[in-house]
Amino acid sequence: MKLDNAAINEHNNALLPEHRRQFDYTAAGLPQVERILQHLEAFQVAIPSWALGTGGTRFGRFPQGGEPRSLEEKIEDIGLLHRLNRSSGAISLHIPWDIPKDAQAVKALATEHGLAFDAMNSNTFQDQPDQAHSYKFGSLQHVDQAVRKQAIAHNIDVIKHGIGLGSKSLTVWLSDGSSHPGQLNFRKAFGRTLEGLQAIYQALPEDWKMFVEYKAFEPNFYSTTVGDWGQSLLYTSKLGPKAYTLVDLGHHLPNANIEQIVSLLLMEGKLGGFHFNDSKYGDDDLTVGSIKPYQLFLIFSELVEGMDAKGMTHATDLGWMIDASHNVKDPLEDLLQSVEAIMIAYAQALLVDRPALEAAQAANDVAQAQEILQQAYRTDVRPLVREARLKAGGAANPIGLYRSHEVRKKLISQRGYNNTATGL
Ligand SMILES: [Mn+2]
């Protein structure tokens, strides 16, 4: 469903006086407000095609109706998010859950909604009904060459779909690994996986990137063949300049210092992009910024510092994607909250007084360094994020408008209650 300008204007007009008051107060104390607003307006976060329906756990799934029944309806949902926040202008597709039947038509529909195609995601962690060989014991690491060939061919197929849509990157996440000691020869599994990745890399167009995503555990519970950033960096270094490491915030062992990982990958020119989510225990796929907002800020602080040190463009030189699951909340509301959390952390990171922090570090003034970071983190930047959104034509309060417009109710009446989005 579409929101027209009149509905957004009416909503905004009612909130503008209070927004002005808050924005003027925040902006008065900040140098370079215009620069910050420009950065925020340019920043776009890709929404994954698998996050628009209700997720679930292995214990159950409790859908709330109105889920998209097709790729076209998924694009419409992301178009609605982007209409509300002007920061969700991309979609990250999963194959085979969302195979475009008519690439030209799908691309045209996305363009109509102001959406670009971010990274394509392959899937060799499940068996599909028509598939010749099983991935039960892995895909690219598999001892049987026929399985490896099938997994390579699938990834090449995903690249072809992406070319048709104007995507420029492939994300490979492998569930390969082992669940019991002795099951796998680690070195040989690594070698076979590298060979497979090399074959896929050969099929990448010149202007494409390949993201190798790592994960510490699950679904395998003893070893994972791309288990951490070191292993991913080993693969991507051996593959070549188009290969990068992808950081999914939920894929680390507890208490990992993700901001340090990010800093060093950036330093090496090997950070490709992000899957944003939040977690308390494992790969919980919760709303971004809902559990550890300070960590999210520290990650963005390293990103801004590291990207500026290399003269990179924040908005476009890395892949920014959400990878989350919405088990009890309305997925669209959850995604609005996630994008907002990302924008807030990014805005806070832009506020950090870099020269002062550098001086404090050089003087070993630990207390002052902490003061500088927390001065930025404890600034209420929501009026800045709202101002950037309003300038771009979005809603002052995206969730407020989504609710007052009764979007979910309308989606249920259009699409029905019992349909399940593909991949869930
Ligand atoms: Mn991920």
Outline the structure in words.
With 424 residues, this protein is of the alpha/beta class. Helices cover 48% and strands 9% of the residues. It has 15 helices and eleven strands. It has helices at residues 5-28, 33-42, 71-85, 103-112, 145-165, 186-202, 229-239, 258-267, 293-309, 331-351, 354-362, 366-377, 382-391, 398-404, 407-415; strands at 46-48, 90-92, 116-117, 120-121, 169-173, 177-178, 209-213, 223-224, 243-248, 271-276, 319-322. The strands form three sheets. The protein has a six-stranded parallel beta sheet with strand order 4-5-7-9-10-11. A three-stranded parallel beta sheet has the order 1-2-3, covered by helices on one side. α4 (103-112) links the parallel β2 and β3. The mean pLDDT is 97. Residues 173, 213, 248, 275, 323 line the site of manganese (II) ion.
Mean pLDDT, all residues:
97
What class, by secondary structure content?
alpha/beta
pLDDT under 50 segments (min length 5)?
none
Distance between the termini: 22 Å
Write down the secondary-structure element order: HHEHEHEEHEEHEEHEHEHEHHHHHH
Q: C-alpha Rg, in Å?
A: 22 Å
Number-wise, the strands total 11
Bound molecules: manganese (II) ion
Question: Keywords for this structure?
Answer:
single chain, 424 residues, alpha/beta, 3-stranded parallel sheet, binds manganese (II) ion
